[in-house]
Predict the structure.
Amino acid sequence: MNNKGVGVIFCLISVILVSAKYISAAMFMSNIATKDASLFKKGLEYVGPFLSIEAIIAMVIGILFLGYGLYTDSKK
């Protein structure tokens, strides 16, 4: 697999991690009778920063691989 493909896969991983963060917060808050934006924010705090950090790392790696792949293609 070339560098562009690896970059796209890392960007996809980043999107999946961000989605997992919001889905897990929604699952934590599903049993509460009143739905409120401030309560959802508390649910996001309960999930923690781990998924966000991993998503940012995966996105940076993906952009670097994608950029390097495009750079090597333009030099040909």
